[in-house]
Structures are given as C-alpha cells and as structure tokens.
Amino acid sequence: MEINDGEEEEFEFSRNYFLAKEIAGSSKKSTRKISDINVVDEQELRAAAANIEPKHEKEINYLVNSYKRLYPKWAFELRCGFGLLMYGFGSKKVLIEDFASTALTEYSVVVINGYLQSINLKQVIIALAEIWWDDLKTKRRTSSGVSSKVQQPFNSRSMDDLLAFLHESDVEENDSFVCVVVHNIDGPGLRDSESQQYLAQLASCSHIRIVASVDNVNAPLLWDKKMVHTQFNWCWYHIPTFAPYNVEGTFFPLILAHSSTAQSAKTAAIVLQSLTPNAQSVFKILAEYQLSHPDEEGMPVDDLYTIARERFLVSSQVTLNSHLTEFKDHELVKTRRHSDGQDCLHIPLAADALEKLLSEINQ
Amino acid sequence: MRLMVIRVQRRCVKPSDFVNFLRGDLTSVIEKLKSLKKVGPNKSAGKPNGNMLYLIFDNLELIREWDKSSTALSFMFNLYDVLKMHELGLIFISNTSPDTYYSNMGYTEHVPVYFPEYTEDDLRQILMRNQPNRKLYSSFLDVVLRPFCRTTRRVDELSTAFSPLFRKYCEPLSDLASVPNEEMKRRLFSHFRPHIAPSLNEIFWVPSKSSTEAETNKDTTRKGSTRKSEVGDHFAQIDFHMSTSAKYLLISAFLASRNPATLDASLFDSTGGSDSRKRKRKASEKSIEQKEVAEQELLMKGPGTFPLERLLAIFQCITSAADSFDEDEHENDDLRAGGDGGLMSDVLLQLSSLCNANFIIKGGSCPLEGSTRYRSTVSEDLALKVARSLKFPLPNYLYRR
Amino acid sequence: MITSFAIPTFPEATGSFPMVTDATSKQLFTGLVLTKNMEFVDDLLTFEELGSYLKSQGCHVANLSSLEFSVKNGIGGCLRSILRQFLMITLDAADVSILATWYREQGSCNNPVVIIIEDLERCCGSVLSDFIIMLSEWVLKIPVVLIMGIATTLDAPKSILQSNALHHLCPCKFILGTPLERMDAIVEAVLVKQCSGFGISHKVAVFMRNYFVSQDGTITSFIRALKIACAQHFFVEPLSFMIWFLLGDDNLMLQGEKYGLSPEMMLKHALSLPSCQSIGSDKIAKQHGETIVNGLAELKKLQCQWSIVILCLYEAGKCDKVTLLDLFCEALDPDSFKSRAPDNGGGLENDSGGSRDCYKHQQYHTTRNSGFICQAVQKLRDLPAVQICKLLKGWEKYTVNVPQIHEKVKKLLSEVKSEDGKGSGQDLSTISKRHASRKHLKIEDSKAVNEKAAKLLESMVRNYMQPLECAAFHEIVCFKNVNALQTALIGDPRRRIQVDLLEVQNIIQCSCCSSSSNALLPSMHDSSILYTLAQEHGDLINLHDWYQSFKSVALRLSNKGKRGPNYSPSPKKRKATTKPAKPSEASIQARFCRAVTELQITGLLRMPSKRRPDYVQRVAFGL
C-alpha cells in the first residue's frame, strides 16, 4: 500500500484531517472515563510491565543483524564528513552503540543520551574539548608544536570559548575525528532551539562527526536549512528495529497507573489517615467547602479559622497554621490568591476523588 | 555653569550599589568644585560659579521598556530623597508626557517643563544653520518645508529627509554656489515637484548606484521612472527565488490564517476545489446565520493562528489538486516525483525556511510538543503574486475575498 | 567618504560624550544586499568572502548572524560577538566604549569598521534597531559601515526596524545574481565541463533538478546531493577509482593493485557491467581492444564532445532564457539520443510543423518533439545577425578540440561576416527601391545563415551529443541509484514512521502476522495494533474505548492461524502445543501502557491534559 497507488491515497491525509475535525465537532463524544477502566494495582501493573514478553524476537534479531552489513557504509560516510541520522520505529540505541563499538574503534566516541529529561550540554562540550585536547597532544610528535598559550582549564571557560577552541583545527591528518553519538537528538532535554544551535555548531567543527537518532515524526522542525545542509550534513537512514523503547520510556508515566487523580487520591487518603483526628476534621471542613463551592478558587483562610474555632478544632491561629503547613508539606492543600487579594486554600483533587476521600475518612 | 566631563564607569548589580557609588562620586565632585571656588573668585572665567550639581537623564522613555520598569522608574524618581544631597538637582528629559510615568508608587512631585514643537520659522532658522548656500537652501525650504511640516516637526527626521531631496533639487544646477533668481527658482521647482509627494510617504528611501539602475532600465522594458527608488510592489511578480513547495506552503499558511477552520472541509474536499460534496445534514437557518456571523468576526480579528496539522492538510490538498491539473496537460511522465508525495516529504524544512524569512510566525513553545501554533504574516498582495506565479486560483479559496 | 576636520582627543573618542546632535552626520552608510533568494543559506559563503575581501582591502570586518540579535541576548550579545572578533577575547560586560578604545588604538583612522549582518529578516527588530541607534551615536568615533543581507524585498527593513532606527541609515542597494543564474554557473563548471570525471545518470539529474526547483530551492542542497551521490558511488562501485584516469592519471593498473584488485578481476568485473553486455562482447573487443583503458579513453572523448555540444546549445538558449540545468538534464537522456540517432530517422526533421510544441515552458520531461534542446535550436532561427555572429564566435572557442565541427563553424562565421560586409556596403547607398529590395535580399540571406546555423546545431546534437549512459563502461563513473540518493537526502520521518507502524509485516516478514484480511491479530506488535485502532477514531480518542478495543484484539484466540496438522482433539496434546492462552488483565494493561508510551515517544499522540483527562489527541493524520 505505497503512497503512489492512485490519487485516493494522496487525499487520505487531508480528508482524514478535515473529516476528523468535523466529526469531533458534531458527533457525540463517548463519555467514558479512564477511571471506568478497572486498573489493576499499580505494583502489579509495574511488575507486568517489566515482564512483557517481546514479540517476534526471531524476526527482529534477523532484522537488526541485517543492518549490520550497513556498518562499513556508515563508517565510510562518517569519514566523508556526513552526519548520520537514524530514524524508524523502534529503539535504535542498541544498534547504534553496537555500530560505534565495532566500526568506530579507532576514534574517540562520546555518547549523549538524549532521552533523559535534562541534559547539561556544557559538560558534554567540556568533555569533548578535553578529549580533543588529549588527541592533539598525542598526535603532535614535536612538543614545540604545542601552542605556548596558557591553557585555561576547560571547565571555567564559557560555551563560546569552548566552541571556538573546537573550531580551530590545525590538524595535519584529516582522518581523525571525534564521534558524538546522540541518542534521541529530539529528546525532551535537547528540544529547545539553544541546545540544537549548540549541537549544530559542534557538528560544524571539522573534526567532529555526529551519529544521531530521532523518533519523533516531526523531528525536522527542530532544524533549519543551514543546520541540515551545512552544519549537521545529515544522511538519513531508515532503520526500523521494532525493539522496545525500554530505556527511552522510563521517564514517561504509565498512562493507566499514573492518572494523577487516582494517584494523589490514594496518597492523600494514606496521609490523612496518619494525621490526628483534629487535622482530619480541619481537612474535612476544607473539602466540604470546596465541594459545595466548586466555582470558587478556594476557601479563604479566615473563614477556615472561624469555622475551625466554632467546632473547637483549633484554639489559635498558630495551631491552624501548623495544620496547614502539614497539609502543604504533603501536598494536600495549595494556596491561591483570591481576586480580593486574600489567600485561599484549595485541594488539588477532582470533585469525585474528593468525595471518595471524604467517604474514606469518615470510615 | 560649566560642563565638566568626568568619565566613570562602574558595574552595578543592585540599586544600593548604584546609590553608593553615585553618592561617593558626587561628593568628590562637589568637594572639587568647592576647592576650585575657594582658590579665588578673580580667576579666569572658566571657573564654576554655582553651587548646584545637576544630573541629567535623557531619553527617559527608554526605561519604560526595561524589565521591571516600574521599580526602575520609581527608583530614579526617588533618587533625590535617597541621596539627600542639597547641591544636587535632577533633570529628566523625555519624549513622552509625565502622565505616562505615573504609577501606583508615590514619588516626589516633579516640576514639568514643556518644550513645545518648533514653529515653521524656528525650523527654518535651525535648518539654515551651517548651510553653504543660504539663498539656494532658502528657496528649497520654501518648497518643501510646509508640506513636510504637516507630517513631522522633528529636526532629526526633517534633516535626514531633506538632505537627499536637496541633492535632487540641485540636480539641474551646474554651479552649487550660485544664487538663484526667480526664473531659476521656477525651473528648479518644476523639475523637483513630482518628487515631493512620493517622498512624503517614504520613511526609507533606497537609491541605487546609477550604473546598475541604467542596466536594469535596459533589460526590463518598463517606462523610465523619474524616481530612483525601488518600485518593488508594482511588479506583478515576486522578486526573489522560492521553490515551488515553499510557494505552496506560503499560500497554505495564508489560507489557514485567513479562513476560519470550519470552512476547511467544504473548501478542500477530494476534488480540491469546488464544493461538490453534499452536506450530510441540513443545518437550520439560524445556525447558518450564527456561523456566518462568527466567521465574519473571525475575519475582522486579523490573521488567525493554526496548528501544524491543519497547515499540512491544506498543503497536501492544494498540491494534489494542482498536480492532477498538471497531469492532464502533459504526457506521461514517469520521471516526476509521484503525485505530491514528493512535495510532502521535505515540507517541514520548508516551513522553517518560511519562518526564518518572516512569512510565518511561530508560537513560542517547542514545535515537537505539539501545541505550537503558527500565524501567517503575508500580505494578500504577496500571496496573490505567489499564487499567480504558480497559476493557482487563490481567490477561489478565499473566504469572502 | 566623509572625512572629519579634526581628530577628537582620546577621552572624547572613547567616551560617549560629547554627543553628536546633527542628525545627518549621525547617519550610517548602509549597503543593502538583495540576495534574491528567500533562503539565506546559499549566501553564507558570499558574505564570508565579502568579509575576507574587505579585510584584504584594509577594513576591519565583523560578521554577525541573526542569532546574535535575539531578544535573549540583547545588544550585549552582538557587542560581545563583535568584540570577540576584533579583540579575540570574550568579555562579560561588553560595552561600545571598549570598541572605541580599540579602534583608537589601531592607529590611523582611515579604515572603517564594517559590520556584516547576514540575514536581516531573522533578526529581532527591536534589538537591531537599538544597535543601529547606538552605532549612530558613536559613528564619529567609530566609523561604521553596515552591510545587511536581505532575502525578500526592500520592504523588509521597513517592517522589521523601528522608524527611529531607519532614519539613521543612509542606504544604497546592491543586487546579487539569482539562484538560477548561479545554478547554471555551477552546472557548467562542475557537471558539464567534466572537472572531476564523475557523472550522474539522467534519472538522477532529473531528480536533483526537481528537488532544486520544486522542493528545496537551495543551491547548497543541490551540491550536497551531488556529494552524497559521490560518496554512495565510490562506496558501491569497486572500479570507481578509475576516475583518476579520466583526470589524466594513466597508471591505472598500478592503482588497482594498490587496492587489492588484480587486473584479471578488474577486467572480469568491467566486462560484466550491463553497458558492456548490451553492446556485445565481440564488439567491445573490436572497438575497445582488450583493456579497460581504451574503453575509458573512448568514454572520455565522447564526454568531451557531449559537453561541447551542450555549451553550444546553451549559447543559443541564453537568448531565450533556457537554463543550462534544463538543457543538461535533457541532454543526459539516453532514450532521446537513441531516437535522434541518424538511422532512426529521428524526430527533429518534423519539428518545423510542430514548432508550437517547442514553446512550452514549464516542463520537466523529455519527449521527442519538444523540450529545451528543440527550443534552443528554434531560437536560433530568429536571432538577428549580430547575435548570430557573437554566438558563432563563442562556438568557435568551444569547438577547438573537435576539428570537424570547428571547420564548419569557421566556415559559417566567415559567411556571416561577409554578409555583414555586404550589408554595410549597402547602407552607404541612397534609399531607393533597389536598396529596399536589396535589403530584403539581405534579410533573406541572413535568414539563410540562421537556418544553416540551426541545421549545424541539429547535426551536432544528433551526431556528437552522446550521453554518458550510452557509452560502454559508464557504470564506473556514473551514479545511477536515484532511490538511494533520495532516501539519504530527504528523510521522510512523518510518512515512514507511520508506515512502519501500520505495515509491520512488510518489514519484519513474520509468518504469524500475515493475514489476507485486514483483521488485527494478537500476535502483531502492540504499538502497531494500537495505532491501527486509532485510525478509526477522529480527532480525540477516548482512552477507555481504545483500551477495550485493544483488549478485545489481545484476547482474540491466537490459535486461529495455527490450526492445521498440530491441532489435535486430545486435551493433553492441545495443552502442550497451543500457546499459553489468555493473557492476564495486568499484562494486557501493561502492554497497553507501554504501547501508548511508544506512540507518545514518536510524537503521534498527545497525552491527556487537565482539560481533557480521558482522551488522547491524535497528532498526525494519515500519511
């Protein structure tokens, strides 16, 4: 079912999109909620997730092995100055690292795990500068070739200085380079334009080569033509591996388990049960207020104090404050500013979760 | 009062640093002044003979654009109270009136001093200074000053506008030092007159070297224009090179910004053009009217934003439509990139190029998160030009053109 | 150049005070360079070289790109960059007075400071405006000339810069050549004039041209495509090192041994190339002797002739704005050459009737009776005598190495010159009827010359323009694999990743998942199942419903495909052979979660948010 089969295929996309938007507007939406799914206990879910049987193991291994015969071509293109960009469904981490450890043994390789939530690019560039400096020193036969410029230690230099250092190339042989492997160059920690600019400047150094993988379908949006054609110089390779995204997926919450309402309702119940009965009653006041005034931003502190005093739950503002601090520490309560300027207290749970919680406390 | 140039450069991070440094420097300056005064009142006239020290802040309105401008401004205005120096006077010069500086925070009342605009005579006197040929310039000002004064009375704008015009005015003259008589004045005026009106509206007038201008006059067979400035908008074609895909994307963005999203399905159905699809259900009169009102309002608001997916959907639609149109004309061509699949594959890069050229503005967040919205900034004129170069019937797709 | 009457003192020159009040002397000379190309990437090198040239003339040059004019860095960012380029140090607190001090210390103040801003449209308007205003206040102390590259039109500065900054500019415009002109120059220098011996096939050329014209539009990407083609060719074709021979290196055999190839192996490989096989091995032995060297020499000669004819065609086509790129692509077509060959009674004789076909402009395909070559030839018939003369002179230059054509060209040129001579003689006579008729005769004569020139060109095209793909051994030097080039140059992740998901079987080729119907089998990849299910929904997918559908697929009896000889009624055996039956609820939920995560990683879904906690949103619709 290739895209070239007939004109009907070509209109599929746009027709799908416009129809989908129309349907979304007109038809009745199914009103089922996530909570209607009987999610099993989280521990069990996580255990099951860890033990998922992989499918088509044999075929996947065969597929991945078939990519191994591309290694010499990739190494050749790296030497020619291109950057390699791997895309396709399935985790490519193992494949690329296998490539680096078999075909790139003569070069230094630095690996950036782009799938991590945050990445300190400056550290990476410092490491690269140090490696390159070491490489230069070992390659220079005569020590008089070493520049007499006093070398400031790398980690105290600014980003621009480091990049300028890496750009100056007075290497005689053209074949040596440092290879930077970036898993998921479109990962959440590298997506901002500043990081991509730094990576592009890095790639444009004459003795640095980049091998990267992307998973996002819209990855080319990260780059402009200067980056693609002159700095990164990407050669695209479509290598779907269908390997599971084990490492890359660890930072994504499980959609069924981590629906935050279920999660925090449970933790809230646990925390509340460990508090004193007075504290629980204070919390109850808050919850009842919130349930009966769903449109307001929360209960003003003064009102809470008044009601708590009426019910002899607290004797002074200090006591109330200590309860409130405890609630805030456990993230049971949040403070918001009212339009009058007063502080209001608000429980960050949905109404039904709150009801459930109340019923649990009352038991 | 004498102006002394004392150069001090220090970096301050906190306002308190600024105040401390300032106080220290001002005190030392005042000490110096006092000591100079003590030397003797009979010495040369270059001595300072007042007691006061004035700090002058020019272009105060620029502070309003800083971050935390309200605190900065109130800090500035309260400087006098903070420094507590009697010899100090503060003068603030601003382009905007004092009520733009009012804020919730209190400050010492200022004495407002208003400089009214220059009158025409004032302007004439100012502009005549330093002119080598006063009579000639005077006759020039007779011609231009009044119309330009209606637009602006600022000396800097007028002088920068007048200097190229004066050169043009003097073109027929062979001797720039000559004093014009009445007849010459009339001649100069008649030569110069067609240039006045256009230059009134031009803020930015770009001459080109006369040699290149002559060449372009030879190549393109347009009538010799008297103006040397670039007449880009009047050409019926675009001046710069764009790939076909970029052009289609530009048009798609223009349509996406211009048309409300509810119209898409009817405009862009599978035939990519006329609305031949029957509506599934008949909408009531009222809802049609409401829809129209809503769409009209949307039009008044200016170019709207759109998500990436909508842009790509429209793009695919119009490129497929154009393709099928082309294929009818030409014979079989198995060498061309099949259908619009060719154009779609690289379209994201073309989008970033269009953003870089300021044709499409991107909303702030990262594009991969999926919630970015784009907006087209292309004028209808340019969009029509681009569409014409592709032979694409853009007016058919515009909502209420 | 404005020169000053006095030199300011050092403190005056390096401080902000005294200030200039007169607006006209605060103006900065600005060169606006219209690049005529919406993309700025093609002109990066232009501005770099402009900077180098100006440096060689003694100016102090700083190149700035638009990234240094971002809101985040403000003026400080661009000042830092300028100071880094001039002073070679990085300062945290960059100030313009430092620049003034540095300039002052350079000694003679006759050399201006040139600041080149490469792409105006991408700069942040407010920062650039502030920068210009600041420079204008210091212009008497630091004589600055600005050069700004503008991609679109001259209206761009008006829309980007603030008006109080525009006042400070004293502009002058410069226009660069269009990308199409530059492309022609590149095609001429690199591909037509055989600078490297490397060639591309017709299909590859057409692909690259379409890519330039309709998709990418940058010359940079065209050159990059060529580089990728080179790399792929050299990797795949073992005999490709023989290109050195085409560049004049004769030690072919030695080279082969250096790479571990014996002469016999090389010959065997060469003779097994498709181009040799179609010609016939006995013919090769007759035409090319027994070595590859002769074959390559013949190829080189053919290429030279081919390039000469193209250059002559280009000369003719220039008058009608036919681009070299189009001519080049058309000339590479082996099919049209074969149809034009003399024994075919080729189509060019028919085009006197079909002349209308020749005037189609926006075409990219090459049928026999139309196309750019035909258009160029046709134009020849309409040229005035002066231009024919110029044209023929150009041809004379090009055809020096091919005596047969050269002779004919010289003969034609002398004819034209003599016509001119006759004509100029006539002009001296008085206007009379006879003169009028002689003038008419002269026109007739000159038309005859045009016709002869056209016929000459046609014969050149027919006989000497043999494209690379028609020669033997061309696979050694010619790159033909369009698909490989296309997939390496243009990644299409949007389409390909979705196709990966929806058509796993094509890639994995497993036996358990191939089904004639489109039904989803539980043995399929989880993410694939989920994504296929997602196609049935609209914009938003209800998680609950989606999960239920997934569950029902997962629970479908997986032994459907496995029925056959293994199926046995006895319960004991069934237990042993069939797979563990129903997956547990926990495992289905876990698989669902993981598959959703995988789809989220690919960016095809947007996760539930606070506003719509029960739905995921589809991002990409279809391919």
TrEMBL record, chain A:
Keyword tRNA-binding: no
Start and end residues of each Origin recognition complex subunit 2 RecA-like domain: 59-238
Subcellular location: Nucleus
Domain Origin recognition complex subunit 2 winged-helix: 293-352
Pfam families registered for this protein in UniProt: RecA-like_ORC2, WHD_ORC2
Main location: nucleus
Keyword line: DNA replication, Nucleus
Top-level lineage group: Eukaryota
Function: Component of the origin recognition complex (ORC) that binds origins of replication. DNA-binding is ATP-dependent. ORC is required to assemble the pre-replication complex necessary to initiate DNA replication.
Family as reported in the entry's similarity comment: Belongs to the ORC2 family.
Subunit structure: Component of the origin recognition complex (ORC).
Alphabetized PANTHER family for the sequence: ORIGIN RECOGNITION COMPLEX SUBUNIT 2
This protein's name: Origin recognition complex subunit 2
Source species: Salix suchowensis
Lineage: Eukaryota, Viridiplantae, Streptophyta, Embryophyta, Tracheophyta
Automatic annotation (TrEMBL), chain B:
Principal location: nucleus
PANTHER family on file: ORIGIN RECOGNITION COMPLEX SUBUNIT 5
Domain (ORC5 lid): residue spans on this chain: 137-189
Keyword Nucleus: yes
Region (Disordered) location: 266-289
UniProt KW Ribosomal protein keyword: no
Keywords: DNA replication, Nucleus
Protein name stated in the entry: Origin recognition complex subunit 5
Organism from which the protein derives: Salix suchowensis
A Pfam family recorded for this sequence: ORC5_C
InterPro entries (UniProt xref): ORC5 (IPR020796), ORC5_C (IPR047088), ORC5_lid (IPR048866)
Entry superkingdom: Eukaryota
Domain Origin recognition complex subunit 5 C-terminal: 242-398
Automatic annotation (TrEMBL), chain C:
Entry keyword annotation includes Repressor: no
Annotated Origin recognition complex subunit 3 winged helix C-terminal domain residues: 494-621
Protein known as: Origin of replication complex subunit 3
Subcellular localization, as worded in the UniProt entry: Nucleus
Domain Origin recognition complex subunit 3 N-terminal: 26-242
InterPro entries attached to this UniProt entry: ORC3 (IPR020795), ORC3_N (IPR045667), ORC_WH_C (IPR040855)
Broad class of where this protein is predominantly found: nucleus
Transmembrane segments: none
Chain intervals for the UniProt region annotation (Disordered): 419-439, 561-587
Keyword vocabulary terms for this entry: DNA replication, DNA-binding, Nucleus
Species classification: Eukaryota, Viridiplantae, Streptophyta, Embryophyta, Tracheophyta
Family that this chain belongs to: Belongs to the ORC3 family.
